[in-house]
Design goal:
This protein has a single domain, classed as Rossmann fold (3-Layer(aba) Sandwich), CATH 3.40.50.300. Helix content is 34%, strand content 29%.
Length: 221
C-alpha cells in the first residue's frame, strides 16, 4: 500500500540545513497496523504528515496504492488524501461551528455520495459510536473523551483504506484510550490499515510492528 524510498525533509539554516527526516525507507502493506515511536522531535509527526499528503515539501519517492505521489500535482495529492485516508489527531481538529452530525458529514461531502446515503451513513455512525444523543451539540459542549470519539468516528465514516492517528489517546483517560485502541483493533481486523504515532507502550503493542525514529533516522522495525 505504502512504499517510501529515501524520504528526507529539511529546513534551511544559516550555513547549512536542519534535517527532520533522513533517508526513510519502508513498506507498509494493506491491513498492517504499524506504530511509530521515538522521543519528541524525532520526526514522527512529520513522517505522518508526509504519508497523509498534508506536507508536500520533501524529497524522495513515495508510492501510495501504486500511485507515485512524488510525481503528482498538489491537486491530485489532495484528491488521493480525501478518497483514501482518515485522520485522528491528538487535538481533535473538529470544526467548532459545526454540530457533531455536521462534523461527521464533512468527509462524506468530499465524495460522490447522494445526500440520502450520506444521512444514513451519519446516522449509522452516530449509533455505532453511541453518540446519537450528542448529534446536535457543538464540540465545545463535549468532554475531551467525547470529542475524540467524534474525531475517530469522522475518520472512519467514509471507510478509508488508511487511518493515520497522531497521539490519538494523548488527551484521554486510560479507559477512554483503551476504548479508542480497541476500536482501532476492530477496524484493523476488518481490513483497515492503521499507522499510529504514540509514546504509550501499551497502545503501541496493539500494532503488528513498531518503527523507531531518533533524530530523523529510522532505527528499525
Amino acid at each position: 500500500m505504502i512504499s517510501l524510498k529515501n524520504i528526507e525533509k529539511c529546513y534551511p539554516l544559516a550555513g547549512g540545513s536542519y534535517y527532520v527526516l533522513r533517508r526513510i525507507t519502508m513498506d507498509i502493506g494493506e491491513g498492517d497496523f504499524v506504530t511509530i515511536m521515538g522521543p519528541s522531535g524525532s520526526g514522527k509527526t512529520t513522517l505522518l504528515s508526509i504519508i497523509g499528503m498534508l506536507d508536500g515539501a520533501w524529497t524522495g519517492e513515495y508510492t501510495f496504492l501504486g500511485q507515485p505521489v512524488h510525481k503528482m500535482r498538489l491537486k491530485d495529492r489532495v484528491e488521493l488524501n480525501k478518497r483514501y485516508i482518515g485522520f485522528v489527531f491528538q487535538q481533535y481538529h473538529l470544526i467548532d461551528n459545526l454540530t457533531v452530525m455536521e462534523n461527521l458529514d464533512i468527509p462524506l461531502s468530499y465524495r460522490d455520495i447522494k445526500k440520502s446515503h450520506r444521512q444514513a451513513l451519519v446516522a449509522d455512525t452516530l449509533d455505532r459510536f453511541g453518540i446519537v444523543a450528542k448529534k446536535d451539540l457543538f464540540p465545545s459542549q463535549l468532554s475531551g473523551g467525547q470529542q475524540q470519539l467524534v474525531a475517530v468516528a469522522r475518520a472512519v465514516i467514509a471507510s478509508p483504506k488508511l487511518i493515520l492517528a497522531d497521539e490519538p489517546t494523548g488527551n484521554l483517560h486510560s479507559s477512554q484510550g483503551k476504548e479508542v485502541m480497541e476500536l482501532f483493533k476492530k477496524l484493523n481486523a476488518e481490513g483497515t490499515t492503521i499507522l499510529q504515532v504514540t509514546h504509550n507502550e501499551s497502545w503501541a503493542a496493539y500494532g503488528s510492528h513498531i518503527i523507531q525514529l531518533r533524530d530523523g533516522w529510522m532505527e528499525g522495525k
